Amino acid sequence: MYLEPAPTTEDLLTRLDAEELVAALGVSPSPSDRERYLHWDKLRRLPPPEGLSSEQWWLRLKSARQDAMRPLPLADVDGKPFGYTLPDLILRHLHRVDQRAAGEVSMDEVVTSEREAGRRFIVNSLMEEAIRSSQLEGATTSRVAAKDLLRTGREPRDRSERMIVNNYRAIQFVKEMGSELTPDAVLELHRIVTDGTLEVALSTKPPKKWREAFERATALLSHGNWNTKLNQRKATVALDPVSPGEEERVRQFLEGALLEANHAIVSEDELFEADAEDGSDEPDTSEDDEMTERFRAFAAQ
């Protein structure tokens, strides 16, 4: 889709005469103009305010936006700094995201001790952080079920619940770790967030026939010990729960499932095609003939 480049402020200042500049810059943009953040390609197709041309209207908006511009420590290839503005519409949407995504950090019971109230407030805030971050990463567990999971301490039922528990434990570990971040602490964090889960990358996105064969193989070979989930888009296989010390069993399980799936999609036609690549429709009997002659020579001695 083609978007017409917007005229720069410098171009407009040289193109418009003094009266046109006064008409464009003498009045602030209307509230409706501040509400929207129109691109030039769309603005030029709309009827401008009375007494203004599209270029004058654009200059008025650009001037107001530049006054509210917040600079960034980044620049383009020409050295011009990047910046951004926050129209009222964006601020309203951000406020709604804050309200809907932040959860509710509260206490279920009335407490009489200020110390106990503070402790419960912190625990609830850690739970909310673990739940929301897991949901952003793809966990499908509801907030109510996730809160019950963390409060009761029961074993996670699926990968989504495992993500929530691991994130909660990781946040607790960071809270207790203090300000010093060491390589051992990073490794321990990685162990916590991956505990009970395993994700193996595939070399390519598998075809449908292979996926069906792999799912049959994992259902047959797991004996109910592991749940596997094949993600076609990411070309990965997720496995849970995985306990410490099960690495070798998991490796054997996955190797067996992969071999079974690969074997299942090799059809008889493919086997015949492989034989046909030799250039002959007849079976290769040269080795059999040579062995027969050796036996005959041995018997004649």
Question: Can you offer a commentary on this structure?
Answer:
The chain is mostly helical and 301 residues long. It has three domains: 9-70 and 84-91, no CATH class; 102-194, no CATH class; 198-273, Alpha-Beta Plaits (2-Layer Sandwich). It has 14 helices and five strands. The chain has helices at residues 9-15, 18-25, 31-35, 40-43, 54-67, 88-101, 114-136, 143-152, 159-177, 183-194, 208-221, 247-264, 268-276, 286-300, and strands spanning 70-75, 81-84, 198-201, 227-231, 236-240. It has a three-stranded antiparallel β-sheet, with helices on one face. A two-stranded antiparallel ribbon has the order 1-2. The radius of gyration is 34 Å and the shape is elongated.
β-strand percent reads: 5-15%
Shape: elongated
Strand order, biggest sheet?
A: 3-5-4
Low-confidence stretches: 280-284
Q: Biggest β-sheet: count, sense, barrel?
A: 3 strands, antiparallel
Oligomer: single chain
User: What is the overall number of helices?
Assistant: 14
Mean pLDDT: 76
Could you tell me how far the N terminus lies from the C terminus, measured between alpha carbons in angstroms? 88 Å
Radius of gyration: 34 Å
Structural class of the helix and strand makeup? mainly alpha
The number of domains: 3
Task: Count the beta strands.
Answer: 5
What share of the residues lie within helices?
55-70%
